[in-house]
Amino acid sequence: MSQPQPGVIPYGSSVIYSGPVDIARPINHDNIRGKTIVITGGASGFGAACLQEWASHGANVIIGDINEKAGTELVARIRQSTGNQNHHFIPLDVTSWPSQAAFFKQAARLSPHGGIDHVMANAGIADAPEQLVFEDPPDYARMDDGPPPKPAMRTLDINLNGVMYTTHLAISYLSRNPGSEKCQVGKHSGTRDRHLILVASIAGLAGLAGQPLYAAAKHGVVGLFRTLRLTTPLKSGIRVNMINPYFVDTPILGPLGAFVMAGGGMATVKSVVEATSRLVADQGIIGRALVIGPNTSEEDAKAMGLERAIEDQAVWDCYAHDFEQTDLFTRRIVGVTNLVTQARGWVGIWSDIRKNLSRKLWKSMGY
Fold this sequence. Notes:
Rossmann fold; eight-stranded mixed beta sheet; NAD(P)-bd_dom_sf; 12 helices
């Protein structure tokens, strides 16, 4: 670790996060075998591609999706091709808390070892008409017959609120995964794991013209990652990683998106699967984010506003400097978390806070 800048409070030695991801390192697919992996939005796109890849390496994959027909048929094909009956489809509406809670409970019950090793918060949409209406609203001032109808926010409901539900449940189940240990830097494999993968987007790192709701949601996912990547490994032993794909030719892009990107560089589903597989297979990768972009030159990448560390590389670590040198308040929170987890536990610290607040209250009342 480099020396901290003047005025910056160091995190301390007990913070758990790994260094930049070595993209050139071979992926240890053997460490995927036997793991139980849960994917939301797994019936198509990235989720379906990851299901097929991980199932081929011996993982037990459980997907949830609102498209029951596609999900059921996909899992049936994967079962037949792998001979493994531990792949399952469970109907899931990520915007519904009861649906997500039931999904996780059933997934853990169906898991061969009764727990969940990886959760991929993948479900997402890009509703083009919804974006257009948001930026070109009707004249609300001329609507006199009661309050106007509220704008559709399905993109936020699925891409952000749904991810929040998934993340909350993932922390609960992953932290209690039977036979698992807290994540450790330098420990690259193990029988069980505790891993949350947040699927953001290049739209979470930069603005995306014409997609205000989508970009807002994905920026929210990036903010969630940056908040959890340090404290969740420390408190719950769960490693949190993120992928940020560039434009990929999947159903979420839609015909208009494909038209706009015609002739331009696009990322590939294969590169997304490879990047995500690297995060799944290497238990030593903790608190990292990968951009999956076009396999183009560094000059072209910079022209698109993308910085990369390796020439002609489709996947690279986008770990920004401010991920490490965060603001003073965050570093103090991490420092308190260090003390809590090392010494006394949350009960003791909150007891002190309550006592302190009580003393101030009584003092303000003149006692």
